[in-house]
Protein: Rab-GAP TBC domain-containing protein
Amino acid sequence: MVILPARVNQIVTYLLEYNKDIGYCQGMNYIAGLILLVVREEEKAFWLLVCLIEVKYLYFLPRKDLIEIQEILPEDYFCRKMTGITRDCYVLGDLVKDRILGSSEDQDDQWNLVTVKWFICLYIDVLPIQTTLRIWDCLLFEGDTVLFRVGITLFNLRSSQLARASSIVDVMDGLGNFTIEKQVVNCHHFMNLLFEDKLAKVSREIIEEVRLLRKNN
Structure:
């Protein structure tokens, strides 16, 4: 099925009319396009896009013995300033530094030049399509924690190369070309890495703690 840009643009336009608090960003076209590719009908694609951005679900916090209402994606991801995406790029960097690589603040900024696309596009055009769809299955089931699992795993796969990086070009090379990475192309193997590798395991509570630290710093 050919997905015409005009059809994708129309879905995004409807979304911006439907929710005035949402700001347009380029990643929306990628997201709307993938949804349309799967469901093939514009109306269904529109409502699925609305659900992805707006739907909330109940989440149990075991250590606090509480049930919280969570979104599939944080509500500030696609606001006009994309503050949530910017914040979570740094949160991912903090998790990576703690688990895999040490870095300076300068390296954080270099990483973010690459990882911002990961969050904006929800890994579309970053990973092979079959792998991306498997990640989206998890995203719809457990929310945005899987985005961090994926990010940590990608950093871990390229940790040796990134440890030697001395420039932004090296960083971009180190965090690029995942569509031909064997461990990523095999979507079943990659999903096993996400949920079986201890380094990639990250809970909702940990993410919220790091977000809070970032907010207070």
The first strand starts at residue 56 and ends at 61. Residues 5-54 form one domain.
